[in-house]
Each structure stands twice: as C-alpha cells, then as structure tokens.
Amino acid sequence: MNILNQSKEAKSIKATIEQMKPIENVFFKLETVKTGKDVNNKIVIGGNTKIRITEEQLKNLKQAINKVQNYITNNNV
Questions:
Q1: Which residues contact 65 (CB under 8 A, 6 or more apart)?
Q2: What gap in Å lies between CA 7 and CA 1, rounded to an integer?
Q3: 73/25 Cα distance (integer angstroms)
Q4: Of 6, 8, 28, 60, whose CB neighbour count within 10 A is largest?
C-alpha cells in the first residue's frame, strides 16, 4: 500500500487503494508472534515471525481478496 500511496493523486490509483482497504483491514487485525529456536539448550529470540490466523479471519481475508479480484477483472482495471 505504501507504493500506491506515493501516487494516490492519480484517479485509478485512488480507486485501487479504496478497493484494497478491506484486505488491509483484515490483515492488520492478524496477530504476529515472534518465534525463537533452541540452540544448545538456549532459546534464541528473533529471526522468525509467524502470523496467527483463525478460520474466521482466513475466511474474511479470502472474501476481501476475491472481492478485489472480481472488481479488477469485471472492470478491466
């Protein structure tokens, strides 16, 4: 979205940003969890991040993505 925001004054970019807002809203509600690995019986923090997503959140994300895909293909964007 940051790349799109750089050109947000263009009419087509502005429309694309608006269409993608539902995806962004779902994505930013997801929980990120830092993971560590065990090295020589010591936990090393950092390096990896996992996203926790519930079935409901996944369903909402898929619906938001499908809506944007349909808009783009149906409107020749």
A1: 23
A2: 10
A3: 22
A4: 60
Residue 51 in tokens: 């996203």
Q: What is the tens place of the pLDDT at every residue in 6-20?
A: 565 677 777 778 888
Q: Return the SS3 of 17.
A: helix
> In angstroms, how far apart are the furthest CA atoms of the chain?
57
Query: d(Cα 52, Cα 31) in Å, to the nearest integer?
Result: 5
Both tokens assigned to 77:
């964007």
Q: What is the pLDDT of residues 22-46, one digit of tens each?
A: 999 988 888 887 766 656 666 666 5
Contact 52, 31 (CB under 8 A): yes
Judge whether residue 2 has pLDDT over 70.
no
Question: Which residue type, as a one-letter code, is found at position 66?
Answer: N
